[in-house]
UniProtKB/TrEMBL annotation:
It comes from Runella salmonicolor. This is Thioredoxin domain-containing protein.
Length: 576
């Protein structure tokens, strides 16, 4: 507990000792009201002002035998991990290589022990990290020659080195012994086959590993178990089948303190399963006792008489029909706030009726992550403050804090940018941070005009257009664009990010700023959207288009930023 909360707790304890004797002189019904209001104030004080402190992993090391050519191709090294509430978006830290090949970066951790991935050039390797230091050494001469051109030092060095050799051998074995497609009529039979596949992989590990390493056993076997659960829940989601009670114990969520990418994926697939199969409640409105509780919590300046009536409803008294209009009028005093809070309360009520308390705890936490892409920071902050105090698992709390902290890093920048957007034009865009340019779309009178203006603006330059939608794939492609830009010859290609029309202006603005994707950002209206879909022959999203300096297409359907193989095929055509 931080110093602020300790001080608040001490204050509230002292206040409680004063309040309790004082209210004993009031009538019993008024006593209940005063105690309830005191508890509401008490809980509000503990809404966190900032996210909980996380542990820090330091990753340092060196690229040995670093040549000029290798440095130009890969001037930085990255480390990635995921958050259990948002496993579809990696948290990445990058370090620029020093002239001697050395590097150092810091990565925040939520769990005591977390799987991370290091990426350099063509090498991608998982390792275990914890509070402390992991050392990584890569041999530049062996990147394409050795199956394991990496050495680990520091925390869990022996386990990480053994896992690196297993990881390379395992992927090679899987290539020679691929998984077979599973056909099953029921979830029970599907799980049997998935478990058999998992056991086949565990058997390979047992035969491969000759040195006893308890931590490595836990890492590999838990990852294979979680991968099987993820595959199983994915099947249930697609088939809209409910989990059979007979196998529920085998497929329950792993809440241990050991966190891997496979565990994150199993939770993600469980979320998809819950969203796909949990039935709606017969009634789509909140019960009166919940509504009364929320009104007491969020509506200011309620009279004593009205508060007494609300407390009665919270405690189970039945509201009369003539009083529903009165409740509605109170609700309307903070309608925008209460509608958002009610959305969460209906969500948790729905899933609480179909899932265990442990599962509901996670689903409540993941509500925030599921909605961050479609709502503004103001709305998600309201949800964060409302749902956080009810979470039981401390790692869900820390994970939620981390996501909310990341989301709010740009809150001040977003607030100052919003009023300036009215003056931002295509020829005079708003530079919110270095290289990130935002422009209002003022060409709606003619859907072809914007395309003509873009070609004129970038005449004489190669341009890479990214058409994106506000979903996990669209946000991911924005995040990956900077890595691509860094790998291209400096100033060789202009980047333009074109957002489809359905995203609201405020959400688009926040997404563009948070992405830090360098280049020009625009949002289409509906008619322009239809025009570009036809002009660029867009068949799926996200989508990319590459044009030469004369305004001619190099390729419609160009490789997306993370498609290294696709870029290697057109590299000479673009840059020679």
């Amino acid at each position: 507990m931080n110093k602020r909360n300790k001080a608040i707790l001490s204050f509230c304890k002292n206040l409680y000792c004063i309040v309790l004797p004082a209210i004993s002189f009031f009538p019993p019904r008024l006593q209940r009201l005063l105690l309830l209001l005191w508890l509401i104030v008490f809980s509000a004080l503990f809404i966190p002002s900032s996210y909980a402190q996380t542990d820090t992993l330091t990753v340092r090391g060196k690229i040995e035998n670093l040549t000029v050519r290798l440095y130009r191709q890969a001037p930085e090294i990255t480390v990635a991990r995921v958050n259990i509430l948002q496993s579809n978006q990696e948290i990445v830290r990058a370090a620029q290589l020093q002239p001697d090949g050395s590097f150092e970066l810091k990565m925040p951790l939520v769990y005591p022990l977390e799987e991370c991935y290091v990426t350099y050039a063509n090498v991608v390797m998982p390792f275990l990290g914890e509070k402390g230091t992991v050392e990584i050494t890569l041999n530049g001469d062996s990147l394409t020659k050795s199956e394991v051109p990496i050495r680990f030092g520091g925390a869990h060095a022996a386990t990480n080195n053994r896992h690196a050799h297993f990881y390379a051998a395992f992927n090679k074995w899987l290539k020679a012994n691929p998984e077979k497609p599973i056909k099953a009529a029921t979830g029970f039979h599907f799980w049997e086959k998935v478990a058999q596949e998992r056991d086949r992989k565990i058997s390979f590990y047992r035969n491969f590993q000759t040195v006893k390493d308890t931590l490595l056993d836990k890492w590999v076997i838990s990852s294979l178990n979680d991968a099987a659960k993820a595959r199983f829940y994915s099947y249930l989601s697609q088939e809209k089948q409910k989990l059979a009670l007979a196998i529920s114990a085998s497929t329950e969520l792993d809440t241990s303190r050991f966190f891997t990418f496979a565990k994150a994926d199993s939770y993600r697939q469980f979320t998809n399963y819950a969203l796909a199969t949990t039935p709606d409640l017969p009634e789509s409105s909140l019960p009166v006792n919940t509504l009364a509780r929320l009104i007491l919590q969020y509506v200011p300046n309620i009279s004593t008489a009205d508060s007494l009536k609300l407390v009665g409803y919270v405690q189970g008294e039945t509201a009369k029909m003539r009083e529903l209009r009165w409740l509605s009028n109170l609700f309307n005093q903070k309608e925008d706030t209460l509608r958002l809070i009610a959305a969460f309360e209906l969500y948790t009520r729905k899933f609480g009726a179909a899932h265990s308390a442990k599962e509901l705890d996670y689903l409540n936490a993941v509500f925030y992550a599921e909605n961050t892409n479609n709502f503004t920071l103001k709305n998600t902050t309201l949800w964060y403050n409302h749902l956080r105090p009810g979470l039981k698992n401390p790692y869900y709390v820390r994970s939620l804090d981390e996501l909310h902290h990341i989301a709010n890093l740009d809150s001040a920048l977003i607030r100052t940018s919003e009023p300036k957007m009215s003056d931002a034009t295509l020829n005079n865009p708003l530079e919110v941070v270095s290289g990130v340019l935002l422009a209002n779309n003022t060409s709606s009178s003619d859907e072809t005009l914007l395309w003509d203006q873009l070609k004129q603006k970038f005449k004489g330059k190669k341009v890479y257009f990214i058409f994106w939608t506000n979903d996990e794939w669209g946000r991911r492609v924005l995040a990956e664009a900077n890595a691509l830009r860094a790998s291209l010859p400096p100033n060789s290609v202009e980047f333009v990010y074109v957002s489809e029309y359905k995203t609201s202006d405020n959400v688009w603005l926040e997404a563009a700023i948070k992405s830090r994707s360098r280049g020009l950002h625009l949002k289409l209206d509906e008619s322009q959207n239809d025009y570009f879909v036809d002009e660029w022959a867009i068949t799926q999203v996200p989508y990319a288009v590459l044009m030469d300096a004369n305004g001619k297409y190099i390729r419609r359907g160009a490789p997306l930023p993370a498609d290294r193989e696709g870029w290697s095929k057109i590299w000479n055509k673009v840059f020679n």
